[in-house]
């Protein structure tokens, strides 16, 4: 009899334990199940690929100076661009000295000397540049952000001179100990001798003949609102708000995700995160931004770090520019527009912590068959187009890019010349 009572008691205890475990795991007071079924859970790892930081660190273009105001320009992913950049990444740069940038006539050097020039957009922190190039650590130089690198040789001095330009625009750093010879520079400059000739005018380069780009239409998909929610919030505590302009806001009381369906665009903010104080620098912040994108949506294409600076030491914007293309013609940036946001991933940081994140919900599924080669104007025809902008502002930079438009057939990428103005505006040439 005693054994029978013991057995019944043991069974009851086991049953009670199983019931208790069920409520602990599957239910919380006043909420839905915490453990989601396969149909309810959105797998965010398939939204985009993860990238290493060095895959995002490369020049926007490489200009070859041939003397007598003859130049040519190579764009990312083109054969000679890859060849020049891979060789320079293996060279050593050391012995830095700082000079005021206005002490030297740089236009004269670019026009008369044989050399190479790498452009890094709005600025790349030296600590990031050290990840892809052999730049010796130097306290004089390490806190800087670099907009361009100029390498040239002169027959009179019989030496190679290497200058790193600060993105602030006031100083330049010379690497007095560079692992480069005059023969190295001339050999790499020779890659441009039989390429399209460019002329340096007013600080930017104009091709003397048309250049070719590929016009294409991409098949696209769209990240769902549920997918984007799942990477930021616990659905069981998320509130939904619909704005008058049609945008949707999801919040957990601290963070918010604004989804603009009409623009296929999201804006995530976490203002309280700024209260967490930590070490920050432009380089470390850019690396934090890369990690954040890897964990929250991933990368849907080829990107380049285009901006990693801010108004002060505590606040910073990190922006990644999307590129399209490869092979013979190279890869070119896709221009973000106020009327159609696409082509950039932007993050805001404060005290080293992510407080804002913006990106498109559109992603590419690959090309359609209707590709064609387009010739962009060069020479005097391009000069006439540029003249139309002369009344607005000084042109700081001129470059080919893709203008995206979304239609029933997919995302069309149309080649265009783009002018970056000194007042910060960007203009697409007609």
TrEMBL record:
<feature type="domain" description="Regulatory protein YycH">
    <location>
        <begin position="3"/>
        <end position="387"/>
    </location>
</feature>
<protein>
    <recommendedName>
        <fullName>Regulatory protein YycH domain-containing protein</fullName>
    </recommendedName>
</protein>
<dbReference type="InterPro" id="IPR042274">
    <property type="entry name" value="YycH/YycI_2"/>
</dbReference>
<dbReference type="Pfam" id="PF07435">
    <property type="entry name" value="YycH"/>
</dbReference>
<dbReference type="InterPro" id="IPR009996">
    <property type="entry name" value="YycH"/>
</dbReference>
């Amino acid at each position: 009899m005693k054994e029978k009572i013991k057995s019944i008691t043991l069974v009851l205890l086991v049953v009670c334990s199983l019931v208790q475990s069920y409520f602990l795991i599957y239910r919380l007071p006043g909420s839905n199940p915490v453990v989601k079924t396969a149909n309810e859970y959105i797998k965010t790892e398939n939204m985009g690929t993860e990238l290493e930081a060095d895959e995002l660190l490369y020049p926007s273009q490489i200009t070859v100076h041939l003397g007598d105001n003859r130049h040519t320009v190579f764009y990312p992913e083109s054969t000679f661009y890859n060849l020049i950049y891979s060789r320079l990444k293996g060279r050593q740069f050391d012995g830095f000295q700082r000079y005021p940038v206005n002490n030297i006539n740089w236009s004269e050097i670019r026009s008369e000397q044989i050399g190479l020039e790498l452009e890094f957009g709005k600025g790349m922190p030296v600590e990031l540049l050290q990840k892809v190039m052999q730049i010796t650590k130097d306290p004089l130089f390490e806190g800087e952000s670099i907009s361009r690198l100029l390498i040239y040789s002169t027959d009179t001095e019989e030496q190679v001179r290497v200058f790193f330009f600060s993105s602030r625009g006031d100083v330049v750093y010379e690497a007095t100990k560079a692992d480069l010879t005059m023969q190295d520079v001339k050999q790499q400059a020779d890659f441009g001798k039989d390429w399209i000739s460019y002329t340096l005018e007013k600080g930017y380069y104009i091709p003397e003949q048309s250049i070719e780009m590929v016009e294409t239409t991409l098949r696209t998909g769209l990240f769902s609102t549920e997918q984007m929610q799942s990477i930021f919030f616990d659905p069981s505590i998320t509130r939904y708000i619909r704005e008058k302009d049609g945008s949707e806001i999801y919040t957990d009381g601290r963070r918010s995700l604004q989804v603009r369906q009409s623009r296929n665009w999201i804006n995530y903010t976490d203002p309280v995160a700024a209260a967490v104080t930590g070490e920050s620098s432009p380089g470390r912040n850019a690396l934090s931004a890369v990690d954040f994108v890897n964990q929250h949506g991933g990368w849907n294409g080829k990107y380049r770090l285009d901006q990693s600076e801010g108004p002060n030491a505590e606040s910073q914007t990190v922006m990644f520019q999307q590129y399209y293309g490869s092979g013979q013609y190279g890869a070119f940036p896709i221009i973000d527009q106020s009327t159609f946001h696409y082509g950039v991933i932007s993050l805001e940081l404060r005290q080293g912590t992510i407080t804002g994140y913006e990106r498109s919900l559109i992603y590419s599924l690959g090309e359609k068959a209707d590709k064609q080669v387009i010739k962009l104007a060069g020479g005097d025809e391009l000069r006439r187009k540029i003249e139309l902008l002369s009344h607005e502002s000084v042109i700081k930079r001129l470059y080919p890019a893709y203008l995206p438009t979304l239609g029933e057939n997919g995302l069309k990428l149309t080649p265009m010349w783009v002018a970056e103005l000194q007042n910060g505006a960007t203009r697409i040439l007609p």
